[in-house]
Amino acid sequence: MPSAYEQLVKSGFVGSLKRDVLLEASVDLEYVGAIRSRFADAGDHARREAVTCTVQLISELIAKDLCSLATWSKVPDSGPVVVTRSHRELECIVAESSESDHAFEFFLLSTAAGDHWVGRYEALVGEL
User: Fold this and answer.
1) Distance (Å) of CA 60 to CA 63, 69, 87, 106
2) What is the CATH number of the domain that holds 88?
3) Burial code of 67-104, b = ≥16 C-beta within 10 A, e = fewer?
4) Other beta carbons within 10 Å of 13
5) What is the pLDDT of residues 47-95, one digit of tens each?
6) What's the Cα-to-Cα distance from 126 to each of 21, 23, 113, rounded to whole Å?
7) Which domain holds residue 115?
8) What is the C-alpha separation between 12 and 86, in angstroms, rounded?
């Protein structure tokens, strides 16, 4: 049986979610926990694999240089800090993102390449 992620790719859910994440990350930020919640709401199979699905989606966006993983700086008024985490660390971050103490700790920000993708997307939508 295909993984929940593979099933959601075939249904178009993952592509739409990537678009939505990138659009939000380009104008503000997209919390890791919000992405995990969308997978958890995508059906029983996806709910059981929500952490794995979230890690895969985030990893793909980072690998394509469309988004960066970030957290809040410890220095007052200095904004977010882009961070690099291993696959295992990212799994822990996603798993902990459902806990209230960690819900707003990590998020995605759009990169220059991500902003360029959003610009192309908005131009295409504008043609419709």
Assistant:
1) 5, 12, 12, 17
2) 1.10.10
3) bbbbbeeeeeeeeeeeeeeeeeebeebbebbeeeebbe
4) 19
5) 999 999 999 999 999 999 999 999 999 888 888 999 999 999 999 999 9
6) 19, 15, 20
7) 4-127
8) 28
**One-letter amino acid for residue 107 of the chain:** F
Write the DSSP assignment of the chain as a string of letters.
Answer: ---HHHHHHHHTHHHHHHHHHHHHHHHS-EEHHHHHHHHHTS-HHHHHTHHHHHHHHHHHHHHTTSEEEEEE-SSTT--EEE----HHHHHHHHHHTTSTTTTTTEEEEE-HHHHHHHHHHHHHHHH-
Split into its structural domains, the chain has a count of 1
Phi, psi of 121 (to 5 degrees): -65, -45
Instruction: Enter the pTM of the model.
Output: 0.93
65: left (phi over 0), alpha (psi -120 to 50) or beta: left
* Of residues 123, 117, 128, the one with CA closest to residue 19: 117
- Residue carrying structure tokens 């696959």: 87
